[in-house]
Structure formats: structure tokens, C-alpha cells
Amino acid sequence: MEQKSVTILKQYWGYDSFRPLQQEIIDSVLQGHDTLALMPTGGGKSICFQVPALQLAGICIVITPLIALMKDQIQSLRSKGIDAVGVFSGMSKREVDIILDNCIFGKIKFLYLAPERLHSEIVQERLRYMKICLFAIDEAHCISEWGYDFRPSYLQLSKLREIHPTVPFLALTATATVRVVEDIQEKLQFSAPQIFQKSFRRDNLCYLALEENDKFARMLRMMHTLRGTGLVYVRNRRETQEVALFLMNHGISADYYHAGLLPAERSRKQNDWMANRIRVIVATNAFGMGIDKPDVRFVLHLDVPETLEAYYQEAGRAGRDEKKAYAVMLYNQEDRDKLSRYFVASFPSIPFIQQVYHQLANFFQIAYGAGKGVVESFDIVGFAKRYKFDILSTMSALKFLERDGWIALSEPAVLPARIKFEVDSQELYKFQVQAAKYDPIIKYLLRNHGGLFEYFIAINAYDIARTLKISYDGVSELLRGLESLQIATYLPKTDAPQLEFLQPRVDYKNLFVDSAFIFERKRIKREQLEYINAYLEDTVCRSIALQSYFGEIEEKQCGVCDICLKRTHWQQVELKITEAIQHILLAEPMSEEELMNAIEDKNQQLKASVLRKLVDNQEIVIDSGLCRWNTAF
Predict the structure, then answer these.
(1) For 333-371, how does the pLDDT look when each residue is reduced to its tens digit (9 = 90+)?
(2) Residue 580 in domain
(3) DSSP single-letter state for residue 202
(4) How far are the Cα atoms of 124, 146, 148, 527 from residue 308, in angstroms, in the given order?
């Protein structure tokens, strides 16, 4: 079994051996065990389900909330000759039907599903007819209400157990506290605990949390001192551009990245950074998932993350080559005040949540008693502006409405234009002869794309326009024409999140909102906020503090974090003061005031502290108001 896994690893990925824990996790899956794998960012989680699935008969269902990562993995598998498809927001019902049929009757090996798709009865029904060998649950911490990134749509995962009770689950996550680990197993109904966990310790990482009012100046000094490429995390899209421009104006090669960029632009920026054509990427937390760049020498946070889990995951993108790297967080009081404001906005009142629901139904013109199953592209910012709602409070209200089963909301997904011919090749040829104006575009599609009669195929209207020497609008008109003539089904490009109404509309006064859940969620978030604030104030080694948060007991100081370095510095200063006091008192006894004045160090508080410690340890004795060195020591 082990040898076969290594053979597959070598054949498809080109590696001769597995990373730590990968083989053990794969063996557990192959033995049919429900398995939980806790592996740090960049630890190779996808290999843990892809390798065993290739050995098992049937299809592997992969659940992940990260559509960009889903697309990357599908593309990567296809480039290796492995059949993989995905179903996520923005796809038409017909498109989904074709994909699911191919999973039942075709040779598809991996089906990637966004969790909100499990609300669909069509998806649930088709899953019953699939020969499934494994359910792989990525970002498994999202299922836990104790976790930092709870997603209501993940609660649908229990339906998978009902549909295929004997198929094993592999749950994967980079960060989970002890409580979350227990919750994942309970929610996924593990038959027996089977947990594989790498230590949260990263010996090559130097963690620094520095209070700093002039963050930009400190950032420049750091980048001029450190070598290599790096990542700068900020909270919003506007900041990514501002910080990148600042760095470029100061001679540092930089670019910005956020989820609002066009796919081609995101790919270009990411590739430039991966190839070291750009030294620094300034990004929101949309950047980094699934990106394995080993030589990142520093990850800098200019804004304080909301949780230690988020910080650990983002900081962990530094130093994957096991060489020394720096994870630096710069903060000030304003950052801490912001976190408190975000916390308050994250828990809107019940009347506000009811009002958001009411206006949501009005926004999409849903009549009372109607609307179940309606799916619409949703501009959250435009919606909030129209009704003068605070955007963060609105997003939080939508999450609570989703958790209570009123709506399902997907993350934004950029889907390219797609097309599929609805007539056979003979009918298409007859049409080309009869409708000459469509002939060039049909020939282009047939020459450049296979499978047009069986699947929806992604197309690029700009490429078509360039080749055919017509305008982009002209291409769009031809594609729409093919659809209106029922020759093809044409799906234009989409990039908005999808909102689905799961229940008929009710009067907002009768809308059930689980206030007990909101109260409990608020308590958990307050606890997480207290932990991040405690981390900033801590006097404990940063590595030990992080390991302790995740339930890992560690006593060995890292020796390189700001706390350890500060402690080492003060120990050296204390030693110098102690030696000075000993030298002075061995020469002659003195009063405490005279002794304090005789010691050259300017830190009065530290000198007093050392003196008290020496008296408490009886290394100094006080006799008749004079301090004497105890020569017995």
C-alpha cells in the first residue's frame, strides 16, 4: 500500500517521498478510517486526499469554500491528466446537470463542491447515485461554531453522512484549537478518533509583535535590513494600493493584490511574485491560500488580525523552506480600538437582522409566500448603500440569516464565459451553410476547443475578437445570436456572489432569528478578541504563547522572538548592574540612596528592581541603614 502511494506521488507530482505525516494520513484513509489532519499552511494537505483517491475505486468529493483554490486544484489535476470538475456559484442549472451526470456515468475522479451547493436537492439526489470513495473536507474548522471562521453552509455536511454512511471522511485544516478539533469530529460524526497533527512549533520563524506609531517607517527599515521576498497583509483593498505605492516610491519592488481584481490581473501579479520579478506583494487575506512559495523571508501584518488562528495561518506563509524567516505584526492603540469596533458591528440587533431580510426580499422583488429556490447575483455593497446599512453589520446579518436557513450566500466567483452546442455536428454544418455570418465564429470554436457538443467550455471573447478582427461587442452579439437560434447555450461571464432564497418569504416580524446562537457566538468572538489582545500584551515567548493557544504544551523558549530577545537584553543589563553593585559594596558599605546614585545605569526602575532582588536573595544585607555585600555568597 505504501509503495503504491509513493509510485503515484512520483508519477503525478514528481516527488520521491512524502512530507511528514502525509504517508500516515494516506494510510488511514486507505484503511477506511474517518481521519482528521491538522497540518500547517503549506504542509501539503491536498496530496493527502488526492493520492489515496487515485488508488480507490470511485469518485472523491472535495468540499472547499475557497473557489479560487478550487479552480487552481482542478486545473492542476487536469494538467496531470486526471479528470476533475467543480460545481460552485454562478453556474447555470443546465451546466450543473451536465457536470453531475458526468460524475455518475463518466470517468470523473474528483468533484469539487462549494459547501452552499449541498443545499440543493438536485446535488444531494445526484450524489446518491455516485460511487464515492472519499469525502475530503478542506478548511474543516469552518464547520465548528467555536472556530474563528465558522461558515453556516458547512453545517450541511452532515447530509453527506446520511447519503453515504459508509464512505470515510478526511477533514483537513491548518489551525484548530482543542475545542474545534472535538467539534469537527462530532459534527462529521466520526466513528472513532483518528487524528494526525503536526506540532504548531515553527523553529525557523521569528515572531515579532511590535508597538509602533510610525508603521511605514518601521516597515521600510525592516525591508532594507532583511533580504528576500515578502508578504504584507492589510485589512482592505484601498490599503493594498496605498502601501504598494509607498513601497515603490521608496525603491522597493512591490505590487498589490485583492479579490476585486480581474482573474488575468490576479494571475499576473501572483506569477510575478512567485517568479521573484516582484519582491513584495501587499494583499488582503484573499492572497496566499494554496500558494506554496518556499522562500518567503518575511510576512508583515500592518493591521492586527481578528484572531490568533488567522494570524498563525497567514504568518505561516513565511519560511516554508525551513530557513530563518520573520513574522512581524506592527500595532498601536488605534488597531486595538478598530478590533473592538469590528466586534460590535459583527453582532447587529435582532430588529436590524429582520430589517435586512425585509429589504433583501424587496431588493429582489420577492412576493410574500414566494421566492423559495430563487438564485440571484448579489451586489452586497450596492444593497447596503441603497438602504443606508452599515456594510459590516449587513454582512454579519446575512451570515445569521444563512445560519438560520433563510438564505444561502456564496463567496464571489469569477466565471469566464462558457458555451455548449445544442445540436449535433451535422445540424451545425447545415446551419453554417445557411447562416454565413456565424460561420467564422463556429469554425474558431471548433478549431480551438474540444468537447463543445458534450460540455460547457470556457471561452475568451477578447481572443475571439482579436483572431476574427471584429469588436468585442460583435463577438458577444454573435454568441447571443447562437443562443437565440437554439444552436448553442451561451453563459456570459459572471463575477458576483450568488444569493439563494431557501424559504418562501415571510413577514419580517415573524422571521425566526436564533438569538441564543448569536449570544453564544458573540461570547466566543469576545474570547478570541481577548486572546489576540493578550498576545500583544504577553510577556511569554511568542512561540510558546501560540502553541499554548492551540493546546500544545511547550516549555522551551524560542530565543528569537521579541519577548525572548527583550528578556535576554534585560538579563544582560541586570547582570551588569549586579556586578556594579557587588564591586561598589565590596569597596565600602553605602546607604540605598548613595548606592542608587553610584550605579551609572539611567534606568532607576531597573536598578531598584535589581537591588530588591539582591536583598530578597540575601546577597545584600542592610545593617544600620547601610547596604553591605554578603561575602558568604
Answers:
(1) 999 999 999 999 999 999 999 999 999 999 999 999 999
(2) yes
(3) -
(4) 35, 13, 9, 11
Query: Domain range holding 298?
Result: 205-331+526-549
Q: The whole model's pTM is what?
A: 0.78
Q: Are 296 and 325 in contact (CB under 8 A)?
A: yes
Whether residue 518 is contained in a domain is answered as: no
Which residue, among 43, 523, 19, has the nearest Cα to 312 in the 3D structure?
43
Q: Is the pLDDT of residue 412 over 70?
A: no
On whether the CB atoms of residues 610 and 619 are closer than 8 A, the answer is: no
d(CA 356, CA 338): 24
**Could you tell me if 485 and 500 lie in one domain?**
no
Q: Are 222 and 298 in contact (CB under 8 A)?
A: yes
**CA contacts within 13 A on the Cβ side of 175:** 21
- Per residue in 553-593, pLDDT (tens digit) is 888 999 999 999 988 888 888 888 888 889 999 989 999 88
591 alpha carbon, distance to own chain's centre: 61
Are 183 and 65 found together in one domain? yes
Give the up-direction half-sphere exposure of residue 630: CA atoms within 13 A in the CB hemisphere. 12
Check if the beta carbon of residue 169 is closer than 8 Å to that of residue 154. Answer: no
Cα 453 from Cα 115, distance rounded (Å): 29
Question: What are the pLDDT digits (tens) for 197-224?
Answer: 988 999 999 999 999 999 999 999 999 9
